[in-house]
Amino acid sequence: MQPETFPQFLVEKAKLYGDKKTALREKEYGIWQSVSWAEYLEHVKYFALGLVSMGFGPHDTVAIIGDNRPEWVYAELAAQSVGGKSIGIYQDSIVNEVAYIVTHSDAKFMVVEDQEQVDKVIELWPQLHTVEKVIYYDPKGLRNYTEPYLMYFPEVEELGRLYEKEHPGWWEARVAEGRGEDVAILSTTSGTTGYPKLAILTHNNLISMGRNLMKVDPMTEKDEFVSFLPLAWIGEQMMSLACGLQAGFTINFPEEPETVQENIREIGPQTMFSPPRIWENMVSRVQVKIEDTTWFKRKVYDWALPIGYRMADVRFKKQTPGLGLRLKYKLADWVMFQEIKDHLGLRHIVRAYTGGAALGPDVFRFFHALGVNLKQIYGQTEVSGIAVLHRDGDIKFQTVGTPIPETEIRIAENGEILVKSPAVFKGYYKNEEATRTALVDGWLHTGDAGYLDEDGHLIVIDRAKDVMTLADGTKFSPQFIENKLKFSPYIKEAVVFGGEDLPYVTAMINIDMENVGKWAEKNQIAYTTYTDLAQKPQVYQLVRNHVVQANEDLPPAARIRRFLLLHKELDADDAELTRTRKVRRRFVRQRYQEIVNALYGENDYLDVESTITYQDGRTAVIKTRLKIEELDTYG
Question: What is the CATH number for 611?
């Protein structure tokens, strides 16, 4: 029988590969540790039986929080194998966010990584009325914790072994009973307007999405994949589980979040999927490294990159490059591009994806100049991660491609993108009103504005509520302008204001502390804090040059006329960003209304007060004068 659930695919792969092939690989203490498919199955089986012995039943929920580790996927598949479901929580979530998700999902058990996550649970334990046990899998620092609800992961597996002795064959029979329409996971949405909603995704939803993605881009059991983005994110579920369990490729878990780049270089994956911020960071890293390298290497880079851009543009136009360009590109690839790709861990990439938010065209062209087959995808949590994808040889960097098999795209009269697919979710958990708004006659109302071009490619403009009407009456996307700004290695985040009753476009910018800090040290500019560095006149001039450059490609009405450098970084802990680093635009505008007003005022500065909280609970008020820069290039 064809598997219908994730655990059934695991059983199939374990029978096929047993101990002969690596399913999971994790780096611990500098050594890669391998888990075979047979061992993978064993961990899932006994953890599931351990949960059952403690009262876990069909339709119950396990909440999981921590870095990407084998135990994360063991816990998820274990819950699913006995008719339950899981919900992932971002590991950097603050206590209030954890409390909301755990209580709203009615989680019966929690699986957490380490002491940091256990401490969060202890702080909010009085609020967790549905949780019976908290199971941790990294015991470091927890020896003297005596809370009765805490358990060590292997202890649960040992309970499972005892349970099997009394109920032999029960687990295998229960897995076989699973059906595609069973709920697999609850997945948090981006939550750009407040607390996230919980999307209900079935095995059918996730498996159909993975199957149709791989019809376009086949993946095989020989591939390697590095799982480094949060497993709470639908994009990581899409690759590591929906595709990984069907194709049977090896999933690799980095040693630490800080070692991701190094671990990617070691593994040399064939497929990579990352949100725009990761690709933007890679471009920044290359740009900064080139600035710091020798005169000769800079000259070679400055010669090679334009050749790469010409080759990329020829391929975008589906033209055949001439012999001269092919020879020049081959040389540029040999002396420069291969080294850059090796440094980034992209030397063996067959295909790379970006999704979760729009990627700026400058970043997109850069990677294609290097020869990286980077593709845009379009989707969201409610469609199991992906609905639209670039095809090989049919890539337009201003679009997100064409629908994957079994997916229909329609544009509503108001310009909203509608999606119909077997991957479309079943609704929002305990939120019927939101479900009725999102699902109408089988069509998912995405909330995004866009249109189809003459080749059937989808062009996503922005969130429908964020599209602005400029002073000359044209519609424009603030996200497009923000992405052009973020191509600069010195700009980490930008929030653009304009449209409606505002007379022109302005921007509030976060500098990239690491890159600007290196630039300041190189130029012998002393600074103390982020705030101090951001307000240096030399830094304003540095950023101004990049804003002017971004303005050159924009229509006059969309050009940034005034900007300032914010005195603090936008932070998910302050609810200014989502956990996937999307700007909560409405919240940011409300919170920084004084700054927005100043950007449209007559003064060239603004005095602000900030309250900071120290680790011991003490607070202090810091006063800062923010400079407002006006550009002469407007119009």
Answer: 3.30.300.30
Token pair of 66, please? 């921590």
Rounded CA separation 107/105 (Å):
5
E strand map for 153-236: 183-188, 198-202, 224-226
The two beta strands, 619-630 and 605-613, are antiparallel
CB 579, CB 572: distance < 8 Å: yes
| pLDDT score, position 234 | 92
**How many Å separate Cα 582 from the centre of its chain?**
9
The residue range of the domain holding 367 is 274-465
Same domain, 375 and 407: yes
Say how far residue 388 (Cα) sits from the centre of its chain: 17
Location of structure tokens 């063996």? 348
Contact 202, 183 (CB under 8 A): yes
Residue 125: DSSP 8-state: G
Nearest Cα to Cα of residue 217 among 243, 235, 241, 251: 243
Q: What are the structure tokens assigned to 122, written together? A: 């202890």
How many domains does the chain fold into?
Answer: 3
With 0-12 / 13-18 / 19 or more C-beta atoms within 10 angstroms meaning exposed / middle / buried, residue 337 is buried
Segment 33-48, tens digit of pLDDT: 999 999 999 999 999 9
Residue 343: C-alpha distances to residues 206, 229, 261, 264, 304 (Å): 33, 19, 9, 10, 17
Classify residue 195: in a domain, yes or no.
no
Locate 254 and state its tokens: 């980095």
Two structure tokens written together for 400: 């997100």
pTM equals 0.84
Scan for tokens 């334990």, then name that residue: 125
Question: How far is 620 from 400, CA to CA, in rounded Å?
Answer: 46
Confidence check: pLDDT of 549 > 80: yes
Round to whole Å and give the CA distance between 516 and 522.
10
Report if residue 231 sits inside a domain.
yes
Query: Which of 444, 465, 486 is at the close of a domain?
Result: 465
In angstroms and rounded to an integer, the radius of gyration of the C-alpha atoms of the chain is 25
Q: Residue 47 and residue 56: Cα distance in Å, rounded?
A: 11
Helix (H, G, I), strand (E, B) or coil at 34: strand
Same domain, 484 and 499: yes
**Shortest CA distance to 558 belongs to which of 542, 546, 547, 544?**
547
Please report the DSSP string for 68-123 in residue order: S-HHHHHHHHHHHHTT-EEEEE-TT--HHHHHHHHHHTT-SEEEE-SHHHHHHHHH
Q: Which amino acid makes up residue 68? A: N
Asked if residues 23 and 11 have their Cβ atoms less than 8 Å apart, the reply is no
Question: How high is the pLDDT of residue 257?
Answer: 81
